[in-house]
Amino acid sequence: xxxxxxxxxxxxxxxxxxxxxxxxxxxxxxxxxxxxxxxxxxxxxxxxxxxxxxxxxxxxxxxxxxxxxxxxxxxxxxxxxxxxxxxxxxxxxxxxxxxxxxxxxxxxxxxxxxxxxxxxxxxxxxxxxxxxxxxxxxxxxxxxxxxxxxxxxxxxxxxxxxxxxxxxxxxxxxxxxxxxxxxxxxxxxxxxxxxxxxxxxxxxxxxxxxxxxxxxxxxxxxxxxxxxxxxxxxxxxxxxxxxxxxxxxxxxxxxxxxxxxxxxxxxxxxxxxxxxxxxxxxxxxxxxxxxxxxxxxxxxxxxxxxxxxxxxxxxxxxxxxxxxxxxxxxx
Length: 331
Prior knowledge:
single chain; 331 residues; mainly alpha; Farnesyl Diphosphate Synthase; two-stranded antiparallel ribbon; 18 helices
């Protein structure tokens, strides 16, 4: 199967499992909690978990409840992120708090968080995961949740600070906010395979570096993505005043009138589309898009290097293909 077909197959399997878990009353609460599951998605994190497990000879049946857990945690973070950012749309559908109201969105997020751990403890045990493995999985997932929360707080702090952060500070922030869950996805897959600490560390490195690459490209798409593909206005993140790496680099590199134009549109909600297009053109003319994609490629290569010692297999090729996809994607 192609990478796209493998992603679709895994997504279907994980979605079915999650929807069977997110079934309860009051019905509206569980509809709120499953909103983003029912509206589709690539399911990259559970894919990483399952392929990491397969790479090390583990069982997909044992890994599935854990893969579902990592996706529920990811969805929990999306629900809360959307509330904090007051976003109204995510991937062409209303956000949970817009569709179901703020109280049910908060409670729906809580359901996702709790069901994730229940999926590991209850369904993981039923699938045959030993108790000591379940304890290790819970410990690593808990640490990851703390990292994501700390990363989100760092992001909020950077956004509210009048000064622009350095590139290294930004990489540190996304290392927690985004890459932590990628890292843990691969790490938990290795733990499910019940191998050794060296394998767990190797897969953790793969996930962390891939997560950084993923967020860098996400940031680039938010600034210079094709509106016909992204369904967002050109230069949307500039208008929103998001201090992502492409914008930080553009403002740092721009001189004279170009810098003045960039600063004038940054965070200006009522800026015209013409001015936004001009700002994006300035960013591209300085090679910022190329620099960010090359940086993402550097991290993706580091990811691939961490698993190069393993024998060739379908799982290894899938992980390598995913690393390439992450760097080259346009959405």
